[in-house]
Amino acid sequence: LIEIHRLDAATATRHLDDLRELLTDAVDDGAAVTFLAPIPRNQAAHFWRGRIEAITARTCILLAAFEGTKLVGSVQVSLDTPQNQQHRAEINKLVVLKTARRRGIARSLMEAAQREACKERRTLLTLDTRKNDAAEPLYRSLGYVEIGVVPRFSLNSGGGLDDAIFFYKELGRAETR
Ligand SMILES: CC(C)(COP(=O)(O)OP(=O)(O)OC[C@H]1O[C@@H](n2cnc3c(N)ncnc32)[C@H](O)[C@@H]1OP(=O)(O)O)[C@@H](O)C(=O)NCCC(=O)NCCS
Questions:
Q1: Which regions of the chain are under pLDDT 50?
Q2: Are the beta carbons of 44 and 23 closer than 8 angstroms?
Q3: Cα of 110 to ligand 1 centre, how many Å?
C-alpha cells in the first residue's frame, strides 16, 4: 500500500538520507533532474537542506510516497513565484525509486501535488521535462498541455544537450484528477 504525505520541515529532515538516496538513484541512472551523474553525496544533501528551508519559508510543498516506512518517491510544488503570479506554481523533481516504478506512484504523487496546490490557491501549474522521458506521457495523461519544445535545454551526464518540453495545466478548468 502506498501513502502520500506532505512533509513538514522536521519530517523531511528525519528523512534526509532517504531523500538523498532517491535523488542519487535517479541522477546516477541518467535522469534529467537538475544534477549530473555521479552526484556527490554532500551535494544531494545540500540540495535537500535548501528545500527544507523553503518548506519552512512556505515557498515549497514537498510530498513523499511511502510504502510502509520506506520513502519510495517524491515531488515538489514551488510556490516561489512573483507577486503578480501568486495563482501559479511549478511542479519540480518528480522522482520514484527505480525499484518502485510502473506501479502508479508518480501518478499518485502528481494528483496529490495538484490537490495541495489547490489548497494554496494555486490554479495554474507549469512544469518541464526532458523530451521523450517517461514523465512526458504521464503529464499528458494528467491533462497537461504542451507549450512547446526548447531545443538543447539541458546538459546530460554524457556531455550532450537534451531538448526540454514545457507544459501547463489550469486546475479547475480542465478536469482535476
Ligand atoms: C518519471 C517517473 C517519476 C515515473 O514514475 P512511475 O511511478 O514509474 O510512474 P507511474 O507508474 O505513475 O506511471 C504513470 C504513467 O507514466 C508513463 N510512464 C511511466 N514510466 C514510463 C516508461 N518507462 N515509459 C513510458 N511511459 C512511462 C505511463 O503513461 C504510465 O502510465 P501506465 O503505467 O498506466 O502506462 C520515474 O520514471 C522516474 O523517477 N524517472 C526519473 C526521474 C524523472 O525523469 N523525473 C521526471 C522529471 S520531470
A1: 176-177
A2: yes
A3: 11
